[in-house]
Amino acid sequence: MYSSSLNAGWSHLPGRKGLVSGLVVAGNGLGGLIYSILNTSLVNPNNRPSKLIDIGGGKTDTLFPDAVNARVPYMFTIITIIFVIKTILCVAISTFYRKKETELSE
Fold it and tell me: Is the Cβ–Cβ distance between 97 and 11 less than 8 Å?
């Protein structure tokens, strides 16, 4: 994931590789934080707590209520739509960049 983002950024800003690298790494880290918060708000919007249950043999497990579990497919649908839109935008943005003729002849 990093290499394609870095190569695209470096081709747009060849003199600013450090800035591009920092922005790509920070963006990937921030994206993980944002998607974590988004997933939680989609699956468990009312912040219902999990329950500790005994599964036998001295072992326990935590389970969320059925209302929370039923929202998991909805979360996957929304996240998939976001990823598809994001991918289409990234492909569109990266394919619009064309080097000038003077850059190609050098």
Answer: yes
